[in-house]
Backbone:
């Protein structure tokens, strides 16, 4: 019997062992923690983003990332469409270069096409991070290119450090606006083991997310030169993104940010330890073979429907939650799931991981 979304959420909550992601709290727990934080820090609401707390947070993130200014936005989809629109307006071209795995292409319901925001040229190997060797053959006049660090849809892969510097230099020489999709920049920083300023130096604008690795309720931020950010603020308002109260989302992010950032190196280390355990199960494959951040894809020898059935069965019978979703792979009879190594995995022993993966591998073998 197919479970509803509500049933699946309930099943996950009932599991005593959850392998992926961060600990999840119910609404009452989240709001109680936020209320306590507000009382402790004497926080007052903003009004359309105007207010010390929200503006101080924008300044904190801008300083951390290495830019003059930042503007808090309710969603990353809005944030990136505005950034790329402005890049096109500044450079007098409507062309934006995107990798085939870009969030703009895969998860935004063709907004750039239907809203006539910009036009897209795709480039690069869809299974690998792109480099200047992929960009050099594009002879059209690009206004902007987008680089995601790390690249979620291909298992959290990252370009090498030298390759990243080459990309920055090429875009600078060609007068191409280089925009960073930094939804998971926090994870990339731990993997590169360099400061955020070193990573973002050479980018013209950066987007970061607060509800993924930081685990906030929602929210994003666009960072760049002050004039660029001021123009973005106007365009966000034009597109309905200027909500009356931003403080709830900013509170949820601010109260967790420092702790989450401190934990990222441990999460990356744990991902590499987890990879060593997974290699002991020949039927389970990883992409990439060695994690490049604390996110990777785990491939199974069954299709996605079967993978979900196995996940639910193990959760019901053993109280172990293996992964959140599964997607069919290119080859028939294969699927993959995204594994994000967060605070859940930091509290699970190697023995527990071995036991969970044994259940998964055995059930896959039985159904294969």
Residues:
């Amino acid at each position: 019997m197919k479970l509803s979304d509500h049933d699946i959420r309930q099943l996950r909550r009932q599991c005593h062992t959850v392998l992926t992601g961060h600990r999840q709290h119910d609404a009452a727990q989240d709001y109680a923690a936020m209320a306590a934080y507000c009382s402790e820090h004497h926080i007052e609401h903003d009004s359309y983003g105007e207010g010390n707390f929200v503006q101080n947070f924008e300044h904190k993130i801008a300083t951390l990332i290495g830019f003059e200014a930042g503007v808090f936005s309710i969603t990353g989809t809005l944030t990136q469409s505005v950034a790329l629109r402005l890049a096109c307006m500044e450079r007098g071209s409507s062309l934006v270069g995107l990798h085939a795995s870009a969030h703009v292409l895969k998860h935004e319901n063709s907004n750039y096409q239907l809203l006539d925001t910009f036009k897209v040229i795709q480039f690069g190997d869809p299974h690998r991070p792109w480099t200047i060797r992929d960009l050099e053959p594009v002879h059209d006049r690009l206004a902007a290119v987008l680089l995601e660090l790390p690249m979620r849809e291909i298992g959290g892969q990252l370009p090498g450090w030298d390759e990243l510097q080459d990309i920055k230099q090429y875009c600078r020489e060609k007068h191409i606006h280089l925009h960073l999709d930094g939804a998971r920049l926090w994870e990339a920083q731990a993997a590169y083991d360099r400061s955020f300023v070193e990573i973002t130096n050479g980018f013209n604008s950066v987007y970061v997310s607060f509800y993924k690795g930081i685990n906030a309720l929602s929210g994003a931020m666009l960072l760049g030169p002050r004039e660029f950010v001021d123009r973005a603020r106007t365009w966000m308002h034009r597109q309905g993104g200027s909500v009356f109260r931003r403080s709830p989302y900013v509170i949820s992010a601010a109260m967790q940010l420092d702790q989450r950032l401190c934990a990222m190196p441990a999460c990356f280390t744990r991902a590499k330890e987890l990879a060593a355990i997974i290699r002991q199960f020949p039927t389970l494959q990883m992409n990439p073979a060695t994690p490049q951040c604390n996110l990777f894809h785990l491939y199974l020898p069954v299709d996605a429907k079967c993978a979900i059935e196995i996940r639910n069965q193990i959760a019901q019978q053993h109280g172990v939650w293996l992964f959140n979703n599964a997607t069919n792979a290119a080859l028939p009879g294969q699927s993959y799931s995204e594994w994000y190594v967060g605070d859940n995995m930091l509290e699970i022993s190697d023995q527990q991981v071995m036991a969970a993966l044994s259940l998964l591998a055995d059930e896959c073998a039985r159904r294969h």
About this structure: DSSP finds 15 helices and 13 strands in the chain. The chain has two domains: 5-24+262-367, 27-257. The chain has a mean pLDDT of 96.
